[in-house]
Amino acid sequence: MKLELRHITKRFGTVVANDGISLTVQAGEILCLLGENGAGKSTLMNLLFGVTRPDAGALAIDGRAAVFDSPQDAIRAGIGMVHQHFALVPTLTVAENVALGDEPAGRLGWLDRRAAADDVRRLSDEYGLAVPPEALVGDLSVGLQQRVEIIKALRRDAQLLILDEPTAVLTPQESERLFGVMRRLRDSGRSVIFISHKLREVRSVADRIIVIRRGRVVGTPARDASESELAAMMVGRPVELLAAKPGAAPGATVLRLGRVVLRPGAGGIDLDVRAGEIVALAGVQGNGQAELVDLLTGRRRPAAGAIELRSDDIAGRSTREILAKGVGYIPEDRDRDGLVGDLSVTENLILDTYHAPPFSRRAHLRLGRIADHADTLMRQFDIRAASAASAAGTLSGGNAQKLVLARELSRALGLLVAVEPTRGLDIGSVEFVRRRILEARAGGTAIVLVSSDLDEIVALADRIAVLYRGDVVGIVGPDVPRAQLGLMMAGASAGTSVDAAA
Amino acid sequence: MNGAAARRLRTAATGLRSAGDGTVTLLAVVLAFAAGAFVIAVSDDAVLESWGDVATDPLGAIEETVATVADAYWALIRGAILDPQGASLEAVLSPLSETVVTATPLMLSGLAVTLAFRAGLFNIGGQGQAVVGAAAAAFVGFHFNLAPGIHLAAALAAGILAGAVWGGVPGWLKGRTGAHEVITTIMLNYVATILIVYLLAHETFRREGRADAISPLVRPDARLPHLLGGDLRLHAGLLVALAAAAAVGWLLARTTAGFELRATGLNLRAAETAGMRPARVYLVAMAVAGGLAGLAGATQMLGTDFTLTPGVATGIGFTGISVALLGRATVKGTVAASLLFGGLQAGGIQMQASTGTPVDLVTIIQGLIVLFIAAPLLVRSVFRLRAADASPVAASTARGWS
User: Fold this and answer.
1) B266 to A343: CB separation less than 8 angstroms, yes or no
2) Is B226 exposed, middle or buried (0-12, 13-18, 19+ CB in 10 A)?
3) What is residue A38's predicted lDDT score, i.e. its pLDDT?
4) Residues of A in contact with B269 (CB under 8 A)
5) d(CA B142, CA A209)
6) Rounded to whole angstroms, how far apart are CA atoms B307 and B295?
7) Integer Cα distance of B138 and B154 in angstroms
8) Residue B395: pLDDT above 60?
9) pLDDT at A483
10) pLDDT for residue A144
11) Interchain contact, B397 vs A14, CB within 8 Å
């Protein structure tokens, strides 16, 4: 199938999300759409999949004009889409999920389970997408669930498959396997649109690359273009990709975990974090990171074990007590946990310090001091808002994260817990956030970094603790081969050599 | 109640302020009056008769309808604001006085709902809190004999305290056990009503020489003084209510407790993450809200009723919910909305007296206002406003007529 987009334009209010985008996907190729968050990739794919309609421009399939009023139309035309958030029913089996919406009917209209399971097996074999057809989807890992989504699309005979940031939830090994599947799909004559902002992946899998910035196609770099060329095209200016990290000068131990049990059945974990050191927690999402962060921030008390902050046991203490002991926290979901979107930037900047001097006296807010504080931080951290009185919810992702960072780093910190501090940010903000974290490290703050982005972990961490099912499977240095990190994230212990496991 | 349902309710409560922006609120009132006009027309025999002859005299039918509706609304306005045909200055001002007298407890009970909304809580218990507040104020008012000034202050304080307990208990339960405040406050409304019946059966609350359930009269020292002379009922409760409104505004904007309350109401998780303690916020918010509703009952008792009966503070608490909704859970809005509702009720009586349009129309209009505010999409579509939530980007720009 050859799909053409001709001069597609889509506006939301005064903002032009897609501005005259034209592109063509040929049968049997992997096209990568590269762009920062907010560049217009998702809008474009939603237009393509019939979720919304373009204000101007047209789609054509094999030279014939096509109009999609709904995703059903797009599916019928042979387009399949795997979203970042899966649309699967966890209580149904793989086969049932695959059949859902287009069930093979047996006699009397019953669901023909065997036919459904056979479909899954056939597609699994054909494209190397091994999944057990009878397993409940809720029991599968995220990587396997993603395969179910792909199989679902293929069973509807998708000739063009759109994968929206598919590797965000995968280990490096799983990502490699996904790329293998994508290549087989291509070799069978199908087309794949792969959406990503991870330069390394794009370079390794793409047949063709299209870079989108501010709603326009800004370039079609060669597939062997360097990462810095791609990044510059994506951002619109040259970028220094990884902040060069000065050597660590770790001091006294700030945080000590002793036999801390993260979840029932897991062993106790031991971990020390010293002043001026970044310890990263690597691991596929859902392997105990959230539990550990909850313990460190007082949202949960440990089932067993001791958590010492400068030899002070903080296990089971309240959040306020822990924050008062010099713990800063950058939550994973800043809109949900880090900000009150309907309060002003000024108010959000004192969200966890309002009760203490100089911001309050005898239960009264000192609005003058609070306003000065906001002015200072907005300047220091380059927080761009219409004004200090703007609601925090109106800020862009990068500015919102700068707000959280500014608030947390404005206190005297002994320990900073940063969870996915650069997720969803544009490259410029990523740079800024990482630089600030490194500055805190240079200032003697102990830092726990939780990230699912290996590039980030390698760039920032002094030591890496790999979590798997609530246990630390090993603690390694940042120079350990990526492949070995990937194996550890899948449960192999630190000593396992890559060759032996492969 | 399960967690998801509770979350939805909380979202509904906190979403109220954004759901109806100023334009929608105003248009909801306009729409309610338009629908009220229809009700006036179809409940008037002369109008119906004229439409029976619409084939022969279409102009007459329209004229009759317009005249009837105009008469009724004109009477409502005269009854609510000023009566230009009044015989004396007192008679001219009387409607305004009655409007404010009716609005005073509504202002306070509305603030009780507004304050709780801001903490993310839906205080349905204003009624019960007002009832116990009225009962406590009445008791202090008739049972003790204190110095002038002190007596009034003590009676008002008793009302606040009783309401604060009645509101604080659901707040404490919510923080402590997660018991949903909608359920507990509704239940405590019943308990309050039955408590009054029980108290009135008790010797202490009996009025000498009366067999029915009615308390002694509040002593003159404990009554809220009238502000204007003659028979105008406007009393110092207005000043109390305005002071309370100012205090609530100050609490929300200028104190650490108010900051915690707003942050918790807008984003519970972020507030917790920042070290705030929701259990404490809920207790404080509900106790203060209960105190406000208790004060509403007390001003009604010490300014207007002077005696406790089983029907004490009827409707004050529930109308307060509508007032807070119309006021979009802001302090200024609540004050303005209470005056509108007070005017509707005072004017409705005049309307019934002079045009025969039943006073129940006022209840219908009040109900419709709330209905339209709760359905901003409906109002937007009637007036062809661009939907503010069509896209996240458009939200900030689409605020006018399209």
Assistant:
1) yes
2) middle
3) 72
4) 336-337
5) 86
6) 16
7) 11
8) no
9) 84
10) 87
11) yes
- Residue B394 or A263, more confident: A263
Among candidate residues A130, A235, A37, A171, the one with its CA nearest the CA of residue A484: A171
Distance from CA of A355 to the nearest CA of B (A): 6
More confident residue, A307 or B396: A307
- Average pLDDT (B281-286) is 97
**Candidates A13, A342, A351; nearest CB to B274:** A351
CATH match for A3-235 among 3.40.50.300, 3.40.50.1970, 3.30.70.20, 3.40.190.10: 3.40.50.300
Q: For residues B324-351, give the mean pLDDT.
A: 93
Cβ separation B263–A343 shorter than 8 A: yes
CB B254 within 8 A of CB A364: yes
The model's pLDDT over B251-270, given as tens digits with 9 standing for 90+, comes to 999 999 999 999 999 999 99
What pLDDT is recorded for position A421?
A: 93
Chain B residues whose CB is inside 8 A of the A337 CB are: 269-270, 273
Report the C-alpha gap between A350 and A373 in whole angstroms: 9
Q: How far is A450 from chain B (nearest CA, A)?
A: 17
Burial bucket for residue A277 (CB in 10 Å: 0-12, 13-18, 19+): buried
Q: Which residue has the tokens 């069509």?
A: B390
- Asked whether residue B390 carries a pLDDT value surpassing 70, the answer given is no
| C-alpha span between B86 and B231 (Å, rounded) | 14
Dihedral in degrees, nearest 10, Cα atoms A133, A134, A138, A144 = -20
- Nearest Cα residue in chain B from A296: B273
Tell me which CATH code domain A240-326+412-502 carries: 3.40.50.300
Residue B312 CA to residue B195 CA, distance in Å, equals 12
- A113 token code pair: 């389970």
Q: State pTM to two decimals.
A: 0.79
Residue with tokens 């003159």: B220
Give me the mean pLDDT over the A419-448 stretch: 89
Give the DSSP per-residue string, B247-312.
Answer: HHHHHHHHBHHHHHHHHHHH-HHHHHHTT--HHHHHHHHHHHHHHHHHHHHHHHIIIII-S--TTT
Residues of B in contact with A341 (CB under 8 A): 266-267
Q: Give the helix/strand (H/E) hosting A203.
A: helix A199-205
User: What's the pLDDT at A495?
Assistant: 61
Taking phi over 0 as left and psi of -120 to 50 as alpha, with beta for the rest, A286 belongs to left
Long-range contacts of B143-147 (CB under 8 A, 24+ apart): B143/B204, B143/B216, B145/B219, B145/B221, B146/B221, B146/B222, B147/B221
Please judge whether B275 and A329 are an interchain contact, meaning their C-beta atoms are less than 8 angstroms apart. no
Mean pLDDT of A348-365: 94
**Is the per-residue pLDDT at B401 higher than 60?**
no
| Chain B residues whose beta carbon lies within 8 Å of the beta carbon of residue A299 | 272-273
**B327 three-class SS:** coil
- Per-residue pLDDT reduced to its tens digit, A132-177: 888 999 888 888 898 999 999 999 889 999 998 888 777 778 888 8
Q: Classify the C-alpha dihedral A72-A74-A79-A83 as positive or negative.
A: negative
Would you kindly state where each structural domain of chain A is located, as residue ranges? 3-235, 240-326+412-502, 340-410
User: For chains A and B, what is the number of CB pairs under 8 angstroms?
Assistant: 83
User: What six digits make up the tokens of A482?
Assistant: 């990526």
What are the chain B neighbours of A363 within 8 Å (beta carbons)?
A: 255-257
Numbered residues of chain A with Cβ closer than 8 Å to any chain B Cβ:
12-15, 297-299, 318-320, 322-324, 329, 331, 336-343, 347, 351-352, 354-355, 360, 363-365, 367, 394
The token pair that represents B272 in the structure block:
């917790």
Q: What is the ipTM of this complex?
A: 0.83
Find how far residue A359's CA is from the centre of its chain: 35
